[in-house]
Amino acid sequence: LQSASGPKSCFHQLSITDSSLQLSLFSIEPTMASEVPAVACTDPLLKGASAIQGVTILDGGLATHMEALGEDIDHPLWSAKCLVCKPEAIQQAHTDYYAAGADVAITASYQASVSGFKELGLNEEEALAAMRTSVELARKAAPAGCLVAGSVGSYGASLHNGAEYTGDFGDMDEAKLIEWHRPRITALIEAKCDVLSCETVPSALEAKALAKLIDEVKHPAWIAFSCKSGTESCSGEPFLECVKAAASSAYVVGVGVNCTHPSFVKDLVKTCREYLPKDRHVVVYPNSGEVWCGETHTWKTGTATADAAFVDMAKEWIASGADCVGGCCRTSPATIKCLRGAFPAAATA
Q1: pLDDT confidence of 81, banded at 50, 70, 90?
Q2: Which of 146, 151, 156, 148 is nearest to 177 (CA)?
Q3: Residue-wise pLDDT tens digits, 177-195
Q4: Residue 31, phi then psi, degrees to nearest 5
Q5: Rounded to the nearest 10 degrees, what angle do helices 87-100 and 124-141 cross at?
Q6: Distance between CA atoms of 268 and 45, rounded to whole angstroms?
Q7: CB of 247 closer than 8 Å to CB of 275
């Protein structure tokens, strides 16, 4: 029995020889990782992996912490409202997360859009300037060596009805999504974010649009999905199909999940790690387990995951293949401090 491997497939060759006959049988098993293009950019997340275990710690829920700081963000722009009304509060929130041990801060541009800023009386150029400000505020707060991820929230978030958790985007198709996302992504890149954080993506459709746009702008990015189970995105599609769509870009350096119940994450991580080549990161930053109601703009009654339990689950996610870990809605600097304690930075271990 002999075996040989090629760059795109695994071949198993069985040769049976006697005095009169030689028979060769081949079976071809496609290697899924070979479907993913090689990374075409410098990977900024390698710089962020400061922990002994090779784990990059992301920040936690920005809007959650801003509410804790006393800000009212019940607005179509959510925390992005403060880019215009109270930028110092955003900078303080970033400072607190970095102080808790985060290697990466995600900007306050998640729900930022030109149409949303019009409600504050801003024109298009002023809206794009506010998006650039989101990167500048995080950069001012960042200690040396830490990263700034420019948040590119799902189109559904701009609808302010919870569509980022359903994938119900009306008549939006791939081309329209690319055009809608382009100005915000361009603004974040102009402001020199280290990496784009395309997040709370509910569907393969939006992932395909983002992947094509990321290839166009040639900037490092991760794409993180909102999921309703350990096997499905929030649109109801198989999670693997969403991962494939995201990983089709040569500039997507990581794929994963965010704003998803933490109990689903382990299985989702396994799907990512089994499909992605080793040079791609698995990025996870789930919420606390509470459920947001997009219609009432309130958190549904439920049991939040305590920080200690969150960290215990994070250890399982990392053991399953995740290497960038943080929190989303209803997690706090205290959550990130616990994660940092579990995965100490090399300089302080």
Answers
A1: confident
A2: 156
A3: 999 999 999 999 999 999 9
A4: -95, 115
A5: 30
A6: 20
A7: yes
